[in-house]
Design a protein that fits this description.
heterodimer, A: alpha/beta, Glucose Oxidase, domain 1, two-stranded parallel sheet, 3 helices, about 15% helix, globular, B: Aconitase, domain 3, Aconitase, domain 3, 3 domains, five-stranded parallel sheet, four-stranded parallel sheet, about 40% helix
């Protein structure tokens, strides 16, 4: 099985692995997700109706209202959080969201993760070392 | 992160467990951001209420507001006693209007929890402004003031129009800033990050509140969380128009700072706005782009019979309440339609004295305070189709409340309230 390694910067430490859920569109917290179910609800979003629960969420970054961290905080408490975050654009929303979800998170990768990772790939995140290991699906 | 002696003392617990947990959160958050240090702040806007959806269940389970604050405002991992805030701190919008909670369909138990929350906030020294527009009712930061505010529509206004310095904070970072008087020195606190990135050549003669909504909504979707510079604005907008523009840009994208050449305080010239650098991209806003934004905002609308007209997102200025009264005076809201208008409580006092509240009430509408439908999940019972003059509310209502939503001018919305039918068009 083909493995790809990416290197980046730790946002929140820890190790986790899971199936990737990838979007090229930024994600809203407040009005963007149902945190209890762990589902994207923004109407015109390409992941509308899909669940990020237990997935490694790969996305450009956060957008929208300041309730971002609260929504993802509720997702953690509800057991619906993703397992890890991989993203490109650092903002206060995504940083705080990652902190309060207490899940491994990395950014500033040496290749654009949105190009390299596809939904369904198996992804291991070692955030302390800043390493992302991708096993392509199929 | 480099910490000062007073920050280390708080982190070591010298000022008690509440401030210690606040510092721990700020350090975790600052390190996640890649910040080098914290900066002092004495202007914080937060929401700590537990009466909104999701959190009220948590409040029920944990039983104490110290517990809710420890988890959802500090991510403390344990329950700590919450001390009085250190920074001057103001409460943002809440989960209900204490004068209209029954009409809003809120249960008595939630109302009672809300009252406990207000008492808790007051006890720890948080000013109960209860609005998404603190800058309308007395919290107007000066240029360069380091703040820690939640509420994306307020952050973008204070950064862009007032030249204050802040990032869009979350519930946890805002609460930690209130207790510690500190916030990571990162992002828009620093000069170099406040420069424009995208040039927007505005070719359409943007004039009305609706136009400013459309401009903000269009630009936000394209630039996402970057810093757009609007060039070519021919007519001077006012506070209300800029309030709507920013709120829309912070909804379709994550814009927290914009500049308008010749108008906003860090953009006397195009060169100043970009700091002499070249824009990473140039876009235009002409009639076609305006139409795209209008269509996107109306993409959920299908049926023309309107059940609910929502005005006041972000909370209306008293000027806007007055304008609604001009459009409404002597007329009656359709029996099948509800009209709710939202303004800060401090401005409702003026509306009462000016007879505005009476005009709205006599027409069959309600002037509400302290909350909003999308935030609190409050709507007239049975609403299927809504209408609003707010790009932000039109963006969020279909997703959050599951209702079709029409977007248009304030006049279109009032006409819909009177006739019960949506007839808005892009003139």
């Amino acid at each position: 099985m083909k493995k790809i390694i990416l290197h980046g910067r730790k946002v929140v430490g820890g190790c986790a692995e899971g199936e990737a859920l990838v979007t090229t569109q930024t994600i809203s917290g407040w009005g963007g997700i149902n945190p209890v179910e762990g589902v994207i609800i923004e109407r015109r979003h390409e992941l509308h109706g899909q669940s990020f629960k237990g997935k490694v969420l790969v996305f450009p970054g956060a957008k929208g209202a300041s309730g971002w961290s609260t929504r993802f905080h509720v997702a953690r408490v509800s057991g619906s959080a993703p397992r890890a975050l991989i993203f490109n654009e650092m903002t206060t929303k995504v940083a705080l969201g990652a902190v309060v979800m207490r899940i491994p998170a990395v950014t500033d990768l040496d290749h654009d993760p949105l190009d390299v990772i596809a939904t369904g790939d198996w992804v291991k995140v070692d955030a302390d070392k800043g390493i992302v290991e991708i096993t392509k699906k199929g | 992160m480099k910490l000062t002696d007073d920050e280390k003392a708080m982190l070591d617990g010298k000022e008690g467990p509440g401030r210690q947990k606040a510092m721990e959160l700020l350090v975790r958050y600052g390190e996640a951001l890649g910040a080098e240090k914290l900066v002092d702040t004495n202007n914080v806007c937060v929401a700590i209420g537990a009466s909104g959806p999701f959190l009220r269940d948590m409040a029920d389970k944990t039983g104490s507001l110290d517990a809710v604050f420890s988890e959802f405002s500090l991510d403390a991992g344990e329950v700590v006693e919450i001390p009085e805030v250190k920074a001057c701190t103001y409460h943002l919008i809440q989960g209900l209007d204490p004068d209209h909670w029954e009409i809003e369909g809120v249960d008595r138990s939630v109302y009672e929890l809300h009252l406990k929350g207000l008492a808790f906030a007051a006890r720890i020294g948080i000013q109960l402004m209860n609005t998404c527009t603190p800058y309308l009712v007395g919290n107007v930061p000066v240029k360069g003031e380091h703040c820690a505010w939640m509420e994306s529509s307020a952050v973008i206004y204070a950064n862009s129009v007032l030249g204050a310095r802040m990032n869009c904070e979350g519930r946890e970072s805002g609460a930690a800033a209130a207790l510690a008087g500190k916030i990571p020195y990162w992002g828009y606190h620093l000069d170099q990050n406040r420069l424009g990135t995208h040039l927007v050549e505005v070719e359409y003669d943007v004039e009305s509140v609706m136009d400013w909504n459309l401009l903000g909504y269009y630009v936000g979707e394209i630039v996402q969380e970057r810093v757009p510079v609007m060039n070519g604005i021919r007519r001077l907008p006012n506070l209300s128009k800029l309030k709507h523009c920013g709120a829309a840009a912070a909804s379709s994208g994550g814009v927290e700072l914009y500049h308008i050449v010749g108008l906003t305080p860090e953009a006397h010239t195009l060169e100043q706005a970009f700091g002499g650098k070249k824009p990473v991209a140039t876009l235009k806003f002409g009639p076609d782009e305006r139409r795209v934004a209008y269509q996107n905002l109306n993409s959920s609308g299908k049926e023309t019979a309107v059940d609910f007209v929502m005005l006041g997102c972000p909370h209306y200025s008293v000027e806007q309440v007055g304008e609604v009264c001009k459009l409404l005076k002597g007329r009656r809201v359709n029996p099948n339609t509800n009209l709710w208008v939202f303004t800060p409580r401090a401005l409702k006092d003026i509306a009462d004295r000016n007879g505005y509240t009476e005009i709205i009430t006599n027409a069959g509408g309600i002037l509400m305070t302290d909350t909003c439908p999308a935030l609190a999940h409050v709507m007239p019972k049975g609403t299927r189709v809504a209408a609003t003059d707010s790009g932000k509310q039109a963006h969020y209502m279909p997703a959050i409340l599951g209702v079709q939503t029409w977007f248009g001018s304030t006049r279109d919305c009032i006409e819909a309230a009177i006739s019960g039918q949506w007839r808005g068009e892009l003139a």
